[in-house]
Specification:
3 domains; alpha+beta; BirA Bifunctional Protein, domain 2; Rossmann fold; binds zinc ion; six-stranded antiparallel β-sheet; 416 residues; 12 helices
């Protein structure tokens, strides 16, 4: 871990090199914060700068099945990406060139049925997906290998405007269910056609014949179609090959708990902001911007640190470190307040002196989640002892009353 020195953080950054260095330190500082909060599964992902603008940005993702984002990462190298912009290497199918022929496929309208009908793999088919552009509402036809799905965000990027699936089939005259790239007459129909790179060089594919109840078989992309450009609009799948190292990619859900942006001079220039440097020269400050989602972070801390009874707060974020349960208030009251007063000089302590049943006190203590609990019962006190339990229930011991502070300190040192 690198040092994080205040002097560096608060000095002016006048070069890109400076900013890169600071950015790197911030990335590391963020990981320290998440680690202290007890989050074990946070990864940083280079992300799209989006509406914020600027040069580069990272999202910090807590990996969790309940996450709203989908993350693609390599199990072998450091490749990781938001699903929105993830890329992968798609394996080519091995096929011999065949003669192009028309086959009668009555009622077969989707890839799954087509593959079953022709007894071929879905990767031996070509899929057509119809979208429309947000800017001029013109239809866009995307051809992609049959085993793949179109990533709408990638498509929107390629088009330079948002793309939506076309649901109203009356808008464009196409043989829905039988759309193919061969003999399509796209220009006549004023349709924009996009070819995904998964089709590049593929041979012997089955695809729609642009005629109801008919498909083509034996289509070779290079031989039968005139395609000027292939683009990447495919959704990455678990197990696709990493573009950096070839290892299988993994997919996980994640919650964005923080982000950092290198804004550069995007805002300072547009707002005409300057400062005077040590030589009396006007300079444009370089900006960064940094955020942690406090509410999300709290939820993630609980997600990562809990049992069936409630949260197990890591020390760094626990509202109280020590929770004292006085089980028989009238009998143990004095000792309870004495221990409470002694410990609160050093730690945050909460004392349950409500005089309610032990079961209620324990259940509430679990819900409040303080890392260390001290239990005062009439019986133990009679034996000169109190009980200390860690919230994760891994430590449980009876200690002499006079050693409470020392023992608490030890238990605190052992818990997360
Ligand atoms: Zn890799």
């Amino acid at each position: 871990m690198r040092e994080f020195i205040m002097k560096d953080a608060y000095s002016f950054h006048t070069s890109q090199e400076d900013l890169d260095d600071y950015y790197q330190k911030t990335l590391e500082a963020y990981f320290r914060i998440f680690e202290r909060c007890g989050l074990s599964r946070v990864i940083s992902i280079l992300s799209d700068t989006g509406m914020m603008g600027g040069k580069k940005a990272h999202e910090f993702m807590y990996l969790s099945d309940g996450g709203e984002d989908t993350i693609v990462y390599c199990g072998n190298c450091d490749y990781k990406s938001n699903m929105e912009v993830a890329v992968s290497h798609i394996h080519k199918t091995e096929a011999e060139e065949q003669e192009l022929k028309e086959v009668y496929t009555p009622g077969i309208q989707d890839i799954e049925s087509l593959a079953r009908f022709l007894n071929i793999d879905e990767s031996q088919t070509m899929k057509a997906a119809v979208f429309f552009r947000k800017d001029n509402e013109k239809p866009v036809l995307v051809f992609i290998r049959g085993d793949l799905e179109v990533n709408e965000l990638k498509l929107s990027k390629v088009l330079g405007t948002e793309a939506f699936p076309l649901t109203d089939h009356d808008i464009v005259d196409l043989a829905y269910g039988y759309i193919g790239a061969y003999n399509l007459n796209a220009e006549e129909k004023d349709i924009q056609v996009i070819y995904d790179q998964s089709l590049k060089g593929e041979k012997n594919l089955a695809c729609g014949a642009n005629k109801v109840d008919y498909h083509l078989q034996g289509l070779s992309v290079d031989r039968d179609l005139q395609i000027n450009e292939f683009v990447d609009v495919a959704k990455v799948r678990e197990g696709d090959s990493c573009v950096k190292c070839g290892s299988p990619l993994k997919i996980s859900r994640g919650i964005e708990v923080g982000n950092i942006f290198q804004l550069g001079t995007t805002y300072t220039e547009s707002m005409n902001m300057h400062y005077m440097d040590e030589h009396g020269k006007l300079q444009t400050p370089i900006m960064g911007c940094y955020g942690i989602g406090v509410g999300r972070l709290l939820a993630c801390v609980i997600e990562d640190n809990h049992d069936e009874y409630g949260p197990i707060w890591p020390k760094a974020v626990a509202p109280w470190l020590i929770h004292i349960c006085m089980l028989n208030t009238s009998d143990v009251g004095d000792l309870g307040y004495k221990i409470y007063n002694e410990l609160k000089t050093e730690w945050d302590v909460i004392l349950d002196d409500r005089g309610v049943q032990a079961g209620v006190q324990f259940a509430d203590a679990d819900l409040l989640g303080a890392p260390v609990r001290i239990i005062l019962s009439k019986r133990n006190i009679a034996a000169g002892q109190v009980e200390i339990v860690s919230r994760d229930k891994k430590i449980k011991k009876l200690v002499p009353i006079e050693d409470v502070k020392k023992e608490v300190r030890e238990v605190l040192a052992q818990v997360k």
